[in-house]
Amino acid sequence: MKHQIKGLKDIHKLLINERTIGGAIEVNTLRLCTGEVYPNAVITHIDLLGSSIYSIGFMTEDHQNIIINISELSLLLEPKHKKIVELNNKAYKKTKTEQKIKYLKRLFEVNKDSFNSIFHDEAKLIIEDIGLHAATKEINTGLIYSENKIFSIA
């Protein structure tokens, strides 16, 4: 979202830190050496052996989860880190939004009696990632985006 992706190591770091930064890595085109082309593929996993990358997992627009050996990869065109709400891959967007809403519901349930800054920050990150419209359908976002501001002087 903020930084240019320069290589597979950058993608791997973004995937590892997905919980704290949110979003997903989407490429305009992923092409294999065999000539197969996957538009709007979302990179879901990169496997390392030591410091060497040996496989990549991605989801296609057809809802297929594919894992390939790194030697089978020919092209990753314009990889971008995007928020879930901004993805063009509808299959991954739907799946990930459902997962995040389930997690968000659980987060609200666990923290229903204690409103703290850690809960607030994590919930706000998730809501911004999936979009306020999607979150509002499932949960009451009034705790995070309060209309009435409370000010304390003590």
Structural features, described:
Helix 3 packs antiparallel against helix 4. The chain contains 5 helices and 5 strands; from the N terminus they run H-H-E-E-E-E-E-H-H-H. Helix content is about 35%, strand content about 30%. The longest helix is centred in the middle third of the chain and has 21 residues, at about 90-110. A hairpin with a 4-residue loop joins strand 1 (about 25-30) and strand 2. It has about 150 residues and is α+β, with helices and mostly antiparallel strands. The chain is elongated.
Kindly list the characteristics that best describe this protein:
154 residues, alpha+beta
The radius of gyration computed from the alpha-carbon positions, rounded to a whole number of angstroms, is 18 Å
Low-confidence segments, ≥5 residues, pLDDT <50?
A: none
Measure the end-to-end span.
38 Å
Widest sheet, order of strands: 4-3-2-1-5
Strand content: 25-35%
Anisotropy-based shape: elongated
Helix residue percentage: 25-40%
Order of helices and strands: HHEEEEEHHH
Oligomer: single chain
Number of helices: 5
Nearest-integer average pLDDT: 88
Give the beta-strand count.
Answer: 5
Structural class: alpha+beta
The biggest beta sheet, please?
5 strands, antiparallel
